[in-house]
Amino acid sequence: MTDGFLSHLECPACGATYDADVPQNLCACGSPLLARYDLERLAASGALDDLSARPPTLWRYRELLPVRSDEHVVSLGEGMTPLTPLPRLGAAVGVPGLLMKDEGLIPTGSFKARGAAVGVSRARELGIQAVAMPTNGNAGAAWSLYAARAGMRALVVMPRDAPEITRRECAAAGAELYLVDGLIGDAGKIVGEAVAGGSWFDVSTLKEPYRLEGKKTMGLEIVEQLGGRVPDVIVYPTGGGVGLIGIHKALHELRALGRLDGPLPRLVAAQAAGCAPIVRAFEGGARTAEPFPEAQTVAFGINVANPLGATLILDAIAETGGCAIAVTDDELLAAVGETARLEGAFVCPEGAAGVAAIRRLRADGWLEPDDEVVLLNTGAGIKYPQTVSADPPVLAPGDRLPAG
Amino acid sequence: MTDGFLSHLECPACGATYDADVPQNLCACGSPLLARYDLERLAASGALDDLSARPPTLWRYRELLPVRSDEHVVSLGEGMTPLTPLPRLGAAVGVPGLLMKDEGLIPTGSFKARGAAVGVSRARELGIQAVAMPTNGNAGAAWSLYAARAGMRALVVMPRDAPEITRRECAAAGAELYLVDGLIGDAGKIVGEAVAGGSWFDVSTLKEPYRLEGKKTMGLEIVEQLGGRVPDVIVYPTGGGVGLIGIHKALHELRALGRLDGPLPRLVAAQAAGCAPIVRAFEGGARTAEPFPEAQTVAFGINVANPLGATLILDAIAETGGCAIAVTDDELLAAVGETARLEGAFVCPEGAAGVAAIRRLRADGWLEPDDEVVLLNTGAGIKYPQTVSADPPVLAPGDRLPAG
To answer: Full-prediction pTM beyond 0.90?
Structure first.
């Protein structure tokens, strides 16, 4: 057990600081808050030197996480997902050095488990007993299940069109679940009203600082799995963008700790053409995004018309020389099948958007053939069964297969 | 790279031996064949001494696996699934020292990935280019996807009632998929006819020796994760029973290697009351099982009326002082919800059958309150969404939540 290296919360917009040991939501200026650690003391402690001998979960980065006492850790074994080479798909899209960080291999089947594990653990540590959030499905499922494990109540509001499996996960966990005949923004307003009533703590995307800390472990793991270095490019399917912001934060922390040298990887936000607020802002050279009108895509997890973290996303892209790019639903659906057939990986439509984005970036010349590219597959394809059609022939017992 | 320690194949029924370096199916006597290793040479080599520093996949047990050359390994990062404490569920069923080995956190979302990874890798090494199998769903999905990764053809026949998601996984992978209006036995007969045609290699359960080698890694991991010892009891949802046979084999190999002392854990086969051939045989004191008539259960993965490995299962149970027990569909469906609400784990119905079995065994006094029990959850609950109903209220944008 350690009291940890968490020192305070800081606003990246106005620089205000906040006490990390009481529950906090946004900065008074409206920006998300970021957790800050005493990295100098951590570097001097040598605490992370035995990393390779630790169990394969995200808690191996204990000293870079906000939970002060091990007794508050709520874990289902999340983290250290595989970094899998995709040589055949890579060759097909023009970058043979393609790797996939597969976030399907995690409790609840999506990367949202990382944010939920760390967010729920820290909430429990701070004495919070009831959490509320809008969701496009996977985050609600993850927070409902981790909250159940923590003995905490959860209120979840999700669009009626969110993946049906996630609805059942929330129900199984015993969450208080509502659907809304609208988008995640509409769900967010309903949650906002409920939170104002005072009996729920708001854990909406970036409205509390610790979900991000869970997500950043994807960045920590990529560096460890590559033997202490970064790839040339990281492609991230971007809705709320917390994963991209988190990876960027992780890389800066590793640098400050003296555990990473050289340039950061170029960070790429992959979006769906039907909901591409970050792409529009990037193309227009803006540091903020406008709400995307009539947002719609089959890649439901990235259907976020007005991400609260837009500035943090755009800044991370700009600082690393990255970009933002949109692909059509047809392109990403084709990439689901192509990835399964060539690599045996059944990825989620958001991950497939990343595959399609890589193909485009290579075709445009933005990617070079020898670039090492890490794609984040943010969830398991089995959570979105309807992205693949299957209509096989039906035989009777005793039948033979048709010749052929 | 190593040429490995695999020495030959052996028939556990008649003792005949076979060359492991050419494709083999059953023994001439009709029994499955088991892979044998030169354990004396392996023990002397010290090759497994650096285990804790190896990557967290089942390939860390390389020297106890049949693939001779690393270049043939077909991997999606499978293995080293979490061993998660379930203290609240344990207290509810009467054994607080309950742990769950969560096989939902693996490619394709079920433990079948282990058998597919090792089976496909070894098949590729032996020059096989097309594999065929009947399946209750998850094995077909796993073998289809790993075969795709290996560039190998796959023929899969599954019951029409098998979980629909698995059908889509096979289709996504590009497998040749057929449904049959019957049970897995009917699918097996159709595959048998196709295999007799000569262009497919039969990878049905236990009809080739290497799927079992993948499954046995669950046993190797349990011992490693417990720090080199075994629990009192291991509960295994048993259909074909390859996992139970594999765990038993693994424990014997570790013993022969001098890496495990003391009595083996009592092995428990948990079955559904609607398909309980092993339970019937166990209760009748038989070493073979009779086909179970009109087999039916919602826990589709354990709907195997006539398991080829029955004798191996019954022998493993008898040798370890274990037992076989059946639970009703109502009991196991209730356990799905209870496990989610108390522990945040959405388990598959087969895993839930294990939970219900543990409750019964404790009530019967077969389990003591201080027994340490490891439950195998053989797959992710999200592959069986229909086991949980969800009918939440639907709100319109701008609505408030109902008071309460």
So the answer is: yes
